[in-house]
C-alpha cells in the first residue's frame, strides 16, 4: 500500500488541488468551504474504498455501472418524475435527490463510460476494424445526447476527448480515428438545435467578445466579463484576502465558488497561483499516464488514459471559459470547484488511478497494443 508508485503523484496532486479549492472558496463563501472540506473527506474515503477493489472486479462490473448511470440519466428527463426526486434548477434537470445530497448522474456516467469503453476496447478486433468502432460510437453518443438534453453541454463535451485518447491508446488505425473524430464533430454540431436559448446566448456572447463587441457585457456576457475583470485585478502575485473579498463583492460574479472558481484563484493568487494550479494538473496527468504505461493489461491501461484525459479536458474547458476563450458551459473545475457529487466522483477517479498504479496483475495480461 505504501510502496512508491505513480499513484502517489495523483494523490498528491488531488490533495493540493482540493486544498486550493477550499482556500479559494473560503475567500468568497466561508460556510461553503466547510462543506467542501466535509465532501472532500467523503471523496477521499470513497477513493480509499476503490483502491481496495481488485482491478478485474472493476472490469466485471463496468457494464453494470454504465447501465445504471444511463438509467439514472433517463430518469432525469422522464416527464412526471416527482419534484422531490428531480428538482429543476434554472431550468436544468441534472440532479437526483439522494437525501444526504443532490447527485448528478452525469458524474457517475463519466466513470461508467470509461470503464465500459475500456472493457470493450481490450479486444484487438474491436479497435482495429471499422465495424468494431461503430459500436464505440453507440457507446459514446447516447450518454452525450442525454446529458445535452438536461441540458449540460459542458459535461457532454468531455466524452469526445476521452474517447479519442482511449482509441489512440488502444492502437486504432489513424484513418479510423479520423473518421471517428469527424463523426464526433458533426454530432456535436448537430446537437446545437437541442441547446437552450441561454446556451446559444453564451456562444453569441463569446463571438461578440472575440470581435471586440462589448454590447453584451451587461447582459448575456456579464459573467464572462466579470470573470476577466477579476482575473486582471489579480495581476502576477494576487491580492490580499480582504481585498479579494471586497472585489468579489463589488463585481457580483455569478457562481464564483463553483464554475468560476478559477477567477477567484487568479484574483487571490495571481498568475503565479494559476500556473501553480496548472502544474498540479500536470503532476496528476504524469501520474495517470505513468500508471497506464506500467500496465501490460489493456483494460487498466485504457481506464487510466480515459480518466486522465477526462479530468484534463474538464480543466482545460473550465479555465478556457473563465479566460474568455471558450463559451461558458457551467462545467466545474475538478477537485477545486464547490460541489457535491462532482467532487466525490473526481476523488473516485483518483482512487481508480491509484488502484491501477499499485495493482498490475500479470494474470490479466493480454496481447500488447498495435499502433499504426
> What assembly state would you assign to the polypeptide chains in this entry?
single chain
Span between termini: 37 Å
SSE order: HHHHEEHHHHHHHHHHHH
In the sheet with the most strands, the strands line up as: 1-2
For the record, the count of structural domains works out to 1
Largest sheet: 2 strands, antiparallel
Morphology call? globular
Helix content: 55-70%
The total count of strands amounts to 2
Q: Return the average pLDDT rounded to an integer.
A: 84
The helix count comes to 16
Beta-strand fraction estimate = under 5%
Backbone CA Rg: 20 Å
- State the low-pLDDT regions, or none: 361-372
| Helix/strand/pairing category | mainly alpha
What does this protein look like?
It is a single chain. The protein has 372 residues and is mainly α. It has one domain. It is built from 16 helices and two strands. It has a two-stranded antiparallel ribbon with strand order 1-2. Strand 1 (96-97) and strand 2 form a beta hairpin. Helix 5 (105-121) runs antiparallel to helix 7 and helix 14 (261-293) packs parallel to helix 16. The radius of gyration is 20 Å and the shape is globular. The model is unreliable at 361-372 (pLDDT under 50).
Task: Tell me the layout of helices and strands.
Elements: H1 7-28, H2 30-51, H3 55-60, H4 62-77, E1 96-97, E2 102-103, H5 105-121, H6 124-127, H7 130-149, H8 153-157, H9 159-170, H10 174-190, H11 197-210, H12 222-234, H13 241-251, H14 261-293, H15 298-322, H16 341-358
Antiparallel strand pairs: 1-2
Helix pairs in contact: 1-2, 1-14, 1-16, 2-16, 4-5, 4-7, 5-7, 5-9, 5-15, 7-10, 9-10, 9-15, 12-13, 12-14, 14-15, 14-16, 15-16
Amino acid at each position: 500500500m505504501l510502496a512508491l508508485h505513480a499513484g502517489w503523484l495523483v494523490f498528491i496532486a488531488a490533495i493540493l488541488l482540493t486544498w486550493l479549492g477550499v482556500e479559494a472558496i473560503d475567500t468568497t463563501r466561508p460556510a461553503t468551504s466547510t462543506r467542501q472540506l466535509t465532501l472532500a473527506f467523503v471523496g477521499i474515503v470513497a477513493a480509499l474504498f476503490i483502491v481496495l477493489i481488485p482491478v478485474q472486479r472493476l472490469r466485471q462490473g463496468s457494464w453494470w455501472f454504465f447501465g445504471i448511470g444511463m438509467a439514472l440519466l433517463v430518469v432525469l428527463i422522464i416527464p412526471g418524475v416527482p419534484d422531490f426526486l428531480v428538482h429543476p434548477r434554472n431550468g436544468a434537470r441534472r440532479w437526483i435527490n439522494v437525501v444526504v445530497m443532490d447527485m448528478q448522474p452525469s458524474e457517475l456516467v463519466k466513470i461508467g463510460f470509461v470503464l465500459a469503453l475500456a472493457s470493450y476496447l481490450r479486444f484487438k478486433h474491436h479497435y482495429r476494424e471499422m465495424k468494431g468502432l461503430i459500436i464505440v460510437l453507440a457507446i459514446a453518443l447516447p450518454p452525450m445526447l442525454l446529458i445535452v438534453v438536461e441540458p449540460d453541454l459542458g459535461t457532454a463535451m468531455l466524452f469526445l476527448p476521452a474517447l479519442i485518447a482511449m482509441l489512440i491508446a488502444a492502437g486504432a488505425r489513424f484513418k479510423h480515428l479520423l473518421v471517428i473524430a469527424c463523426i464526433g464533430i458533426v454530432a456535436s454540431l448537430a446537437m446545437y438545435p437541442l441547446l437552450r436559448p441561454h446556451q446559444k446566448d453564451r456562444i453569441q456572447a463569446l463571438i461578440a467578445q472575440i470581435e471586440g463587441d462589448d454590447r453584451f457585457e451587461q447582459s448575456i456576457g456579464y459573467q464572462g466579463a466579470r470573470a476577466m475583470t477579476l482575473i486582471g485585478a489579480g495581476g502576477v502575485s494576487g491580492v490580499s484576502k480582504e481585498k479579494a473579498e471586497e472585489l468579489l463583492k463589488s463585481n457580483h460574479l455569478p457562481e464564483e465558488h463553483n464554475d468560476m472558481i478559477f477567477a477567484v484563484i487568479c484574483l487571490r493568487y495571481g498568475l503565479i497561483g494559476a500556473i501553480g494550479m496548472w502544474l498540479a494538473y500536470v503532476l496528476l496527468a504524469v501520474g495517470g499516464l505513468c500508471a497506464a504505461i506500467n500496465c501490460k493489461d489493456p483494460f487498466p491501461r485504457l481506464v487510466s488514459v480515459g480518466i486522465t484525459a477526462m479530468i484534463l479536458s474538464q480543466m482545460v474547458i473550465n479555465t478556457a471559459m473563465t479566460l474568455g476563450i471558450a463559451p461558458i458551459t457551467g462545467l466545474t473545475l475538478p477537485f477545486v470547484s464547490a460541489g457535491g457529487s462532482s467532487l466525490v466522483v473526481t476523488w473516485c477517479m483518483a482512487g481508480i488511478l491509484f488502484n491501477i498504479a499499485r495493482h498490475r496483475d500479470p494474470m490479466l495480461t493480454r496481447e500488447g497494443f498495435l499502433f499504426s
